[in-house]
Amino acid sequence: MHVPWAPLLLAVSSIVATSLASPVDVITAASRQKVIPPTDYEVIIIGGGPAGLSALSALARVRRKAVVFDSGEYRNKDTRHQHDVYGWDGAIPSVVRSIARRQILSYPSASIVETKIMDIEYIEEGPIFTATDYKGKRYTARKIVLASGMRDILPPTPGIRAAWGKGIYWCTWCDGYENRDRSLGLLGNFSTEVIKTSIYVQSLNKDVIIYADGTWSYNAAAKVTEEFPDWQAQLASYNVSIDNRPIASIDRVQGSVTEEGEDEFEVKFKSGGSTVRQAFLAGFPAEQASDLAQRLGLEISDQKIVVNKDMETSMPGVYAIGDANSDGSSNVAHAMSSARRAGVTIVHALAAEDAQALSGTQNAPGHK
């Protein structure tokens, strides 16, 4: 049976045994001890969004010295309000971050440094990691957590950037309810994914148009048919239409950038003509917001950092949490949950290493 506190018990028992041993035994035990190299922090966390702050909280709660390096880049920075986080439903993301920072920094072992980390190097002799910021300042730690997030790749279509997070959204669970019963446009390349999206949003929106923006073709349709044979019949049953005309712009004609539920947009086409929609759900691609995973040589699949169930990457001692990792979800609640799991795993790993160094054993309980 796995005992989470076993590494700590091992450390305590080792100290007691040493205090009762003879001088010769003490000298022998001391000679076996493995020295853990001194570092600035035990854990360095890259990213100050929901995932990074949650990881910092998890570590600070057990007095592990950790730091968040926050470059001020957040995927939800353009979002009016965050949803689907109980207790914080409808809160402004920047307000939540401010309160979280203040609460977490009340723990003496927690730090937040506002800078951008440009490189991370693994020092095998430690083993430790060295992080270097954009000014060239270096910081060392025993573990690394990447909470650097994803960056949405928006098309250059005029109007999309200005309305991103303010009528054009990418997460149904985050913003779909606030746009229920409104005319909805789906943005993104014609694909099986956008077809399936038009079906699962029917519990929220009955008036749905897929704006394929010139990406529909006979070949694309054939591929969708191969993956989803009944797609045409299902779209017809829900009265979902496909508009393949290339889009010239999406212009706001009604609504405030700060308030939900009053948006209205005119979709103008390059060939002339226009349609009106009240909200858009986008399926644009996204990429890693930081290149640190590539610099470390981590395994990446479909733009996501591959992790195991404990959020550890292909490099021991490096963890990835939140939107950036491969565990298949992208929202605030997921970011917090993955951070907590990584935090607990890291605490166990640090405790096992400490106990191993203290006792001179090679395989302390819980050590990977």
Automatic annotation (TrEMBL):
InterPro entries: FAD/NAD-bd_sf (IPR036188), FAD/NAD-binding_dom (IPR023753), Ferredoxin-NADP_redctase_2 (IPR050097)
One Pfam short name: Pyr_redox_2
Domain FAD/NAD(P)-binding: 41-338
Keyword Flavoprotein: yes
Keywords on record: Flavoprotein, Oxidoreductase, Signal
PANTHER family: THIOREDOXIN REDUCTASE 1-RELATED-RELATED (PTHR48105)
Family: Belongs to the class-II pyridine nucleotide-disulfide oxidoreductase family.
Stated name of the protein: Putative thioredoxin reductase
Species: Xylona heveae (strain CBS 132557 / TC161)
Native organism taxonomy: Eukaryota, Fungi, Dikarya, Ascomycota, Pezizomycotina
